[in-house]
Amino acid sequence: MIDFFVLLFIFLAIPNMSTKHKIALLFNISCIICLSVFGSVNVFAQRSDSTTSGIRSKRINKTPQIKVNIQTYKPKYNLGFIQYNDVISNTKIAPATQTKQEKILSVLKVYPNPVDDQVNLMLRLDRESNLSVKIMDLLGNEVVTLSNERISAGEQTKSYTIPNRLNPGIYFLKIVAGSETVVKRISVL
Question: Do 188 and 155 contact (CB within 8 A), yes or no?
Fold first, then answer.
């Protein structure tokens, strides 16, 4: 305690320090002294780790893991290049007896586009089939059915009149022959 009073006298005697700084410095020193005095008392001391308490605690040695059968990802291609072995293994030679099913419908031309009052459709059918021509809106809703008839095979030109109730805009002409469908975009004026 004598040291505290000596320090108090020294700090009050320093002429270059402001009173505010002197008070702050004295407060810090007194806190350090108080902590050193009270720190030696057992009341504030922490128990040593060697003493055990009556409470048992569960010790976790490893983190829990979820076990799932997931295959690791291995990229098939390296920087956009296909490996030669993959090209060879994926190439299958079709037997001569198996032929690709031929196309029934070929739409050659839809004119004039934009359409004013009449649309012409040039198409080719490889065999006789039912032909359905419909006008669809942008959402895929059927607006008008222009034709639903059975026509013979060969190249043909059909003309259809556009109804007056059709508002100007963009529509799709859906042409269906057998199981094949062709969709063409048209603009109506």
Answer: no
